[in-house]
Structures are given as structure tokens and as C-alpha cells.
Amino acid sequence: MLKTMLAGLAALITLLFSTLALAAAADANYKIVTGPERGTYIQIGQDLAKWVAQPAGIDLEVIPSKGSAENVQRMRFEPGVKLALVQSDVYEAYVDMANSGNEEAGTLIRPLRLIMPLYDEEIYFVVRNDSPMKTINEIKDKVISVGLIGSGTAQSATTLYRLMFGQPIPEQNAQHLSNEDALAALIVKKIDVAIIVAGQPAKLFTDMNPELLQQIRFLRVDPNAPETARAKQTYYPATIHVSSYPNWLKEDVPTWTVKAFLVTYDYNLRDTVGNLKRFADSLCANFDNLQEHGHPKWKQVKLELPGLGKGWQYYPPVERRLKACFAHRAAMQAATPQRASATEQVKGRPCSDQERLLLLCGK
After folding, report:
1. Is 189 exposed, middle or buried (0-12, 13-18, 19+ CB in 10 A)?
2. Which of 203, 77, 201, 87 has its CA nearest to residue 150?
3. Is there a contact between 113 and 172 (Cβ–Cβ < 8 Å)?
4. What pLDDT, in 10s, does the model give residues 88-137?
5. What is the C-alpha separation between 275 and 21, in angstroms, rounded?
6. Mean pLDDT value across residues 149-176
7. Domains in the chain: ranges and CATH
8. In contact, 199 and 190? CB cutoff 8 Å
9. CA angle, corner 56, sides to 30 and 33, nearest 5?
10. Radius of gyration over alpha carbons of the chain, in Å?
């Protein structure tokens, strides 16, 4: 009888602690700072909240922002912000300034840690359809909207201009407008160029009135221009595809790209570390859902943690968790190489990464 009572009590205690653990997990209320409301970052944040945070028992609030520089500030100082999306050139700019002795930059960036690189964001150089400009290297001395102060777009626009022309944008020529306001100013001829950073397909353009859309177009990279060679010091070639805007573009447009990172802080509180570990496990476990149901940019994300430049660090608790998960997935893929090979022979083409991850090779 006593044994039965003790067993029942033990079961009750176990159930109580399990319930408390679940309640604690559900009480993880975090925020992720992203970007403008019609940009790609906010959609990526919404995908993470739905497909990663929610299964991990984390209520992740998706917060719009001006962009990457503001995100660094809020990640560092705003209560509840545990995650941020940041452009690689903005992160690098903070690292460089910190290394050159800027104490404030060091205070901001040194405690931040990367969770993983995500995808490349295209840099759009938008002009009116009647503009005489055809290529990006023709924007010198034009009136340009470079994006809001505190945005990643402003960092990319000003850095690219300085690289291409060896000088900053003249103060009287730089306008700090939101993406929507920049396009409106462009159409009514208040500016000559609007520079916008967004992963394709960008809602800014897909949601735009078709009649207004026909009044604008993109400038192209000229591979033979000396300005292009100088821009390659920091940025990488990319292509804006017709398939991203099939009712508008008539041909692909070569442009520049910048990498997006998922960033956190160097947390050491036990609960926070545990929550972020669960977030990492869920990110790996639900990666297929992100690629299938999330923004098209998820299809460009790779499950890997490449080497980082000086001053960049991954968040160790998450890094260990992700590496273990990535290795497990790779082992599962390697376990069926003959089936993958058979698929290639039967269908006459290699299996895609997505097909391998979904175990569709050989079917």
C-alpha cells in the first residue's frame, strides 16, 4: 500500500514538474527586429516565428524597423529583443569601426553573436522609365534616395557609391527616404535614383500598382565599367530574375547582392540559453517547412556554418546544437547514395539539395 502511494506521489511530482517545464517554455516571450513592413526581412521574421519559434514553445513577436543598423542598436539595448536580422556589410562596418578604436561601435557589436548566415539580398537601383541612365555606374552626381538613417539600405547605398566613385555622395544629393516614399519621389521627378535592398521577390514591387510599376525600371551592372571592378571589393554579382516579377520584367537584370545574417547576443542566463538551444533544434528540424512554406528566399539558405572573418563569432550554445543537427542530416543523406544515383540515371538529372533533404531521391 505504501509502495503504491509513493509510486503515485512520484508520478504526481513528475507530472507537476513536466507541467511547470512546459509552462516555462510557453512563457518565453521574445522579439525579433526585422525591417520595413513590405520588405523581405519582416517576412523572414514571420516565418521564423511560425515554423521555428512556435514549435519550440517560444512566442516570438516580429517587430518592424528601419533596418540593420537600428536592429543592432535594439538587439543590444531593448528588453525582450533576442534576435535580429542584419546585413553583412552593416555588421562588418561596426566591426571595422570597433577595430579602429570607436568605443561605441565596440560596445554595440562585440557582445553580438551570429546564429547563421541566411541568404543574399539584391540591391535595386531604380530609375524612371524615361531616364537616360542604363547602368549603375551612371548614378554619379545624381539625386539619390539612399534609405532611412539606421537602415541597412543606407549603409549599402553609401558604401557602394564610395567604392565606385572614390568619394561620398554629395550631401545635397542624398535623400533619406523610406522605400515607398523613395519610389513616389522618383515617379514625380523629385529624385533621380532610388536604391533599395530587398530579397526577391520583394513585396514592395509585387504589391505595387501595375500602372505605377510601368513607370520605373532597374539599372544594370556594366561588367566592363571600372566602377564595377571597385564595387567587387565588398559586394557580389547577383541577378534580378524575370521569374520574380513575371508581369513586369522582360529580361533578367544583373545587380549586386549583400548577405543577410540571423543575429543574437552572447547570453549566459540559463533559461535564455536553454530557449535558444530549443530554437536551434527547431530551426534544423523544421528547415524543410521553412523552404516549402516560407518566403522563396529560404530556398537559397544552406544548412551550414561557414568560417567567419575577424571580429565575427557564432553563438557557441547554438553553434554546437546546429553543427550536431547538420551532421545528422548529412549522415542520413549519405546513407542512401545509391538511391540518389539511381534517380539521377532514371530522370537524367542530379537530385537537388531540397530533394535530398526531403528524401525524394530514388522515388
Report:
1. exposed
2. 87
3. no
4. 888 888 888 888 888 888 888 889 999 999 999 999 999 999 999 999 99
5. 12
6. 90
7. 23-314 (3.40.190.10)
8. no
9. 30
10. 24
